[in-house]
Design a protein that fits this description.
The chain is an alpha/beta fold. Helices cover about 50% and strands about 20% of the residues.
Length: about 325
């Protein structure tokens, strides 16, 4: 009799395990799935680490509006400028990884701050990349009367007269673009730094400087007006704003590419399902023709794509700019 009762108890326990253990597992592991299905349930915040009114800010606000429509929740923009963009990105890195705080980063706060300074309280390991948002294109422009019409001509002249041709730039990306050209073409140029693209362009127009590596957004009007020469686009493809302008790579320096990016980031511990949801919402907006045209109007090229593709851009550019900085012996910034 006792053996019969013992056997029944074992059978009952077995049945209970088969019924309740799966239910318990569903409760534990199903919560994350349920959260992902319901997300988002409240407004999100997008931190833009630059002042209002610039191209990054304008692009970020367009992205926020499109993502809000796709996610069904408001995306509130908050400008947190300071320390070359690193202040705002640091706030994103330190936020709760719940998918409700996003940030718009760029080449500077994502890569260059870690290579050149100023020192940041975060590293790339503190951030997860959702996807690229835009590409900031650069171009080489020449002063009126410059006797060189192509990059080939410039390289030949620079080899014949090392250090004689002067090149204007504004900010670290433009400076690195010049140093990169010098390195891969095997030439020496005289770098003339400026505190903004506009004053640099003014001096190229006035003939005080021979050449400049400046954003297409700033240079476009004067190039079209014939007040400066458009020599070449620095990106890996011709710009939609100047489709007849060849790239540097097409003009005798194979493999050359210099541009800056903007991308959407979240805290590192954000779940993969939330990142995927944000990426889908981001790309839905970036693929709209209306948004792409608005981006172009203030000098950005929309770049939809996966989080993995954006992560590869960061890896590639980090490797490239690390070598350029080392070869050019550019000192860290305080």
């Amino acid at each position: 009799m006792s053996q019969w009762m013992s056997a029944n108890r074992r059978f009952a326990h077995s049945v209970m395990r088969q019924i309740f253990v799966p239910m318990l597992m569903l409760g534990v592991f199903g919560a994350g799935s349920l959260h992902a299905q319901q997300y988002p349930v409240r407004p999100l915040k997008l931190i833009i680490p630059f002042p209002p009114g610039g191209s990054t800010d304008l692009g970020g606000r367009l992205v926020a509006a499109e993502m809000s429509a796709n996610l069904g929740q408001p995306v509130i923009v908050e400008n947190k400028a300071g320390a070359a963009g690193t202040l705002g990105v640091d706030m994103v890195a330190k936020a709760a990884p719940d998918g409700y705080t996003m940030g718009l980063s760029g080449t500077g706060p994502t890569i260059l701050a870690h290579l050149l300074g100023p020192k940041t309280a975060y590293t790339l390991k503190d951030l997860a990349i959702v996807g690229n948002t835009g590409l900031v294109e650069f171009m080489i422009v020449g002063r009126p009367g410059l006797p060189y019409a192509s990059v080939r001509d410039i390289v030949a002249a620079a080899k014949a007269n090392p250090g004689k041709l002067s090149f204007a730039s504004s900010g670290t990306p433009g400076h690195l673009a010049i140093e990169y050209l010098s390195s891969v073409a095997g030439i020496k140029l005289l770098h003339v730094p400026y505190k903004g693209d506009s004053p640099a362009l003014t001096d190229v127009m006035g003939g005080q400087v021979d050449l400049g590596v400046l954003t297409i957004a700033v240079s476009l009007t004067q190039v079209r007006a014939g007040k400066v020469k458009g020599i070449a686009a620095a990106s890996d493809a011709r710009s939609p704003l100047l489709p007849d302008l060849p790239t540097v790579a097409e003009s005798g320096v194979p493999g050359y590419e210099a541009s800056a990016f903007t991308m959407l980031v979240v805290p590192a511990a954000t779940s993969a399902s939330v990142i995927e949801r944000l990426n889908v919402a981001l790309n839905a907006g970036l693929r709209k023709k209306e948004l792409q045209e608005k981006f172009l109007s203030f000098g950005l090229v929309a770049v939809p794509g996966s989080a993995q593709a954006a992560t590869e851009v960061v890896r590639r550019d980090t490797e490239k700019w690390t070598k350029v900085i080392r070869d050019a012996k550019i000192p860290p910034q305080e």
